[in-house]
Amino acid sequence: MVTVPKGHLVARVEGQAALSCQLSPLQSAEHMEVRWFKGDNSQLVYLYRGGGHEVNGEAAPEYVNRTEFVKEAMGEGKVTLKIHNVSISDGGPYRCSFKDTDFSDAAGMNLSVAALGLETQIHVQVPVSDGLEVECNSGGWFPQPQMEWRNSRGEVVPHSSKSYSQDGARLFHMKMTLLLRNRSESIMCYVCNPVTGEEKRTSIILA
Questions:
Q1: 118-170, pLDDT tens digit by residue?
Q2: What is the mean pLDDT of the segment spanning 74-79?
Q3: Which is nearest to 176 in space by CA: 189, 165, 162?
Q4: What is the dihedral of CA 152, 154, 160, 163, to 10 degrees?
Q5: How many CB atoms lie within 10 A of CB 142?
Q6: DSSP letter (8 states) at residue 131
Q7: Residue 49 CB-half CA count within 13 A
Q8: What is the mean pLDDT of the chain?
Q9: Which of 17, 133, 159, 160 could form a disulfide with 83 if both were Cys (CB 3.0 to 4.6 A apart)?
Q10: Class of domain 2-114 (CATH, top level)
């Protein structure tokens, strides 16, 4: 059978992903055909034919020259495919298959792609009659992050409005506003990536 590592597989945008598969019980895979597919076996990511023949040219165009086959442990049935310069479109299900004259099996895994946003900024708008409006902006996130206002005690403060847009690279750009009626309080804009748990915090103290 084919096994894959347990746990959540996460790669960063413009980083590297490592997709590993292992034959169990341990046996050599050097003479086997090894394939990686994206999705429902329709998109070939990489093909290795037994005997040391790597056939990268048959892969889908978006993966050509972006993959690296790690075969140092093939004698023990372990192979790893590295995907370089990861993009958001690389996220999703993958399948790794081993095939021999009398053996064929596969296992699946799911790759999540994440991007930690750029600097978070708070802007104070022109005062209005019933308070002061503040706006928080943060871009470059994937997937869509959690975004909220918090006071000096760490309590969530309901926002006045919240919106987002996505750029050509599918990265999220967030905007959130708040009407402050007490102009002397401290307020923090909190943004968190739901996949990695990484966060950005920016505070402003109004006097």
A1: 889 999 887 777 778 899 999 999 999 999 999 988 899 999 999 999 999 99
A2: 92
A3: 162
A4: 120
A5: 23
A6: B
A7: 6
A8: 90
A9: 17
A10: mainly beta
The secondary structure of 43-73 as a DSSP string is: EEEEEEETTTEE-GGGS-GGGTTSEEEE-TT
The reply to whether domains 2-114 and 121-205 share a CATH topology is yes
Q: Rounded to whole angstroms, how far apart are CA atoms 110 and 39? A: 9
Which range (7-16, 57-66, 191-200) has the least confidence?
Answer: 57-66
Q: List the one residue out of 34, 36, 32 whose CA is nearest residue 44.
A: 36
CATH number of 121-205: 2.60.40.10
**What are the residues whose beta carbons fall under 8 Å from the beta carbon of 12, sequence distance 6 or more?**
86, 113, 114, 115, 116
Q: In this structure, what token pair is assigned to residue 114?
A: 């994440």
- The string of pLDDT tens digits covering residues 24-41 is 988 888 889 999 999 877
Q: What is the pTM of this model?
A: 0.84
Dist CA 27 CA 76 (whole Å): 5
pLDDT at 110: 95
State the Cα–Cα distance between residues 31 and 100, nearest whole angstrom. Answer: 8
Q: Residue 163: its pLDDT value, please? A: 97
Structure tokens at 168: 């050509």
Q: List the structure tokens of 50.
A: 């037994």
Please answer whether residues 38 and 92 qualify as being in contact, where contact means their C-beta atoms are separated by less than 8 angstroms: yes
Domain positions in the chain: 2-114, 121-205
171 backbone φψ class: left, alpha, beta (φ>0; ψ -120 to 50): beta
What is the rounded average pLDDT of the residues 190-195? Answer: 96
Alpha carbons 114 and 194: distance in angstroms, whole number: 9
